[in-house]
Amino acid sequence: MEGAQFIDVRSDTVTKPTPEMRKAMFEAEVGDDVFREDPTVLELERQGATLFGKESALFVPTGTMGNLVSIMAHCMGRGQEILVGDESHINIYEQGGAAQLAGVHTRTLRTYPDGTFDIEELVRKIRPTDDIHQPTTALICLENTHNRCGGAVLPVKFVKKVGQIAQEHNIPVHMDGARIMNAATKLGVPAASILEDCASVSACLSKGLGAPAGTLVAGSSEFISRVLRCRKALGGGMRQVGVLAAAGLVAINTMVNRLADDHKHAQLVAKAINDRKSENISVDKDKVQTNIILINVNPKVISPQMFAQRLKQVRFMEDVSRTRSSQKYKTHLHLTPGRIDVVKKIVY
Ligand SMILES: *Cc1c(COP(=O)(O)O)cnc(C)c1O
C-alpha cells in the first residue's frame, strides 16, 4: 500500500498479502492436495481444526464454497431444508447456491438488527418429522459476525439457545463464521468456545486476517470427509495449493491479535464522522461493534452518487461505482490511524 493515494475500505477483502506472507508463500513446501499430499495445506488444516475446536478442517477456495460444501455435506438426502436468517450472507449473497447447486430448500427466519432471530420463529419453522408433505429440516445456519447487520457479534446466550433447540431436534448448526475471529476478538474468548454448539464452521482467511485467498471449514472428521467429496464435485480440489495455505498459516498465527486494532479504528472512523455533527451524515456508534461501519446518509439531501463523488474527491475511495447501493465500510490492516483523519473531510 506504500504510496497509495486512496484509502480503500469498501471491504476487508481488499488487503494485500503482507511481506511475511509473501515469504512464506515463496518458501512453502507443496504437494498435490487432491492426493492429500500437500504438507502445508495439511498443517493449516491441523491448526485450523485446533483453532475452531473441531476434529478436522478442510481448506477451500472461498467462503461461499465453504458455506455451500457445508450445506451439501449436512444435507445429503432428498427433500431437505435449511433454516437461515433472511439477511444472512447465505440467503442474500451466494446466488442461492443451496438450491442452484445442492438441491436444498431454504426457509428464512427474520433477521433482527443484532444478527439474531426469534427463537419462537425458529421452533415454529422446524418441520415435523412425520408429515410426508413437508421437507425435512436438516440444518440451522448462523452468521457471526453478521455482515449485513454491520459486523454485529451474536450474543453468546443466543448461540447457546439455538444450539440447545437444535440438539433437542437432532439438527446440526452451521456457523457462517467468515469473521468468526472478529467475534472471538470482540468477546475476548477463543473461537472454539463460540463454536461449541456448532457442528461446523466456515471461516475466511482472506478478510481481516489478510491472506490473499482461502477459507477453512471445520467439523467432525466424518463431516469433513463428506465435505472433501463435495469440494471435489464443485471443482474446488486444488493441487499445489500450499502456496496459498502458507499465507493462511501466517494469517491464523500472526494476524488474529491485530483485529482489535481494526475494531478500534472503526470506532475512530465513527467518532471522526460524528464529531462533525452533520445532520446528514452520521454513524450509530453503538452499532459499530467490530470492523464494519454503516454510515447513515440522508438520501433527501445527499444522493448516493453525490456521496460517492465526495469520497472520491477526498481520496477516500477510488472506485465509486460500488458505493452506490451501500454505505457499508470495513476497516482492515492497511487502514492506519494516520489515515483516519481523512474521514473528517467526508462530512459536509
Ligand atoms: C465474505 C463472506 C462470505 C463469503 O466469502 P467469499 O470468500 O467472498 O466467498 C460468507 N459469509 C459472510 C458473512 C461473508 O462476509
UniProtKB/TrEMBL annotation:
Its cofactor is pyridoxal 5'-phosphate. Residues 8-295 form the Aromatic amino acid beta-eliminating lyase/threonine aldolase domain. It comes from the Eukaryota. Keywords: Pyridoxal phosphate. SUPFAM superfamilies: PLP-dependent transferases. CDD domains: TA_like. Gene3D superfamilies: Aspartate Aminotransferase, domain 1, Type I PLP-dependent aspartate aminotransferase-like (Major domain). Belongs to the threonine aldolase family. PANTHER family: L-THREONINE ALDOLASE (PTHR48097:SF9), L-THREONINE ALDOLASE-RELATED (PTHR48097). This is Probable low-specificity L-threonine aldolase 2. The lineage of its organism: Eukaryota, Metazoa, Ecdysozoa, Arthropoda, Chelicerata. The gene is LOC106475519.
